[in-house]
């Protein structure tokens, strides 16, 4: 089964993701932003492999 997604849907989704991310890091220092991004990457990698992530 082939799924089709319009380009406008993808653009809208990406903008929503960016807006959410911007709000989450808005009041962080540069060092805090780096640590936050690293933790998010670890969480996504673990989630991809089916391992629960505990903060």
Plain-language structure description:
This protein has 55 residues and is mostly helical. The protein has one domain (7-48). It is 69% helix and 0% strand. The protein has two helices and no strands. The chain has helices at 7-25, 30-48. The radius of gyration is 15 Å and the shape is flat. The termini are far apart. The model has no long low-confidence stretch (mean pLDDT 87).
Descriptive labels:
mainly alpha, 69% helix, single chain, 0% strand, flat, 55 residues
The number of domains is 1
Portion of residues within helices? 55-70%
How big a fraction of the residues is strand? Answer: under 5%
In round numbers, the mean pLDDT is 87
Q: State the end-to-end distance.
A: 37 Å
Largest sheet, in brief, is: none
Continuous helix count: 2
Radius of gyration: 15 Å
The residue ranges in which pLDDT falls below 50 over 5 or more consecutive positions are none
Global morphology: flat
Question: What class would the helix/strand composition place it in?
Answer: mainly alpha
Task: Compute the number of strand runs.
Answer: 0
The arrangement of helices and strands along the chain is HH
């Amino acid at each position: 089964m082939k799924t089709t997604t319009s380009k406008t849907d993808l653009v809208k989704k990406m903008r929503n993701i960016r807006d959410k991310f911007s709000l989450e890091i808005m009041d962080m220092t540069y060092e805090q932003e780096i640590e936050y991004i690293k933790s998010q990457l670890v969480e996504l990698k673990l989630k991809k492999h089916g391992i629960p992530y505990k903060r």
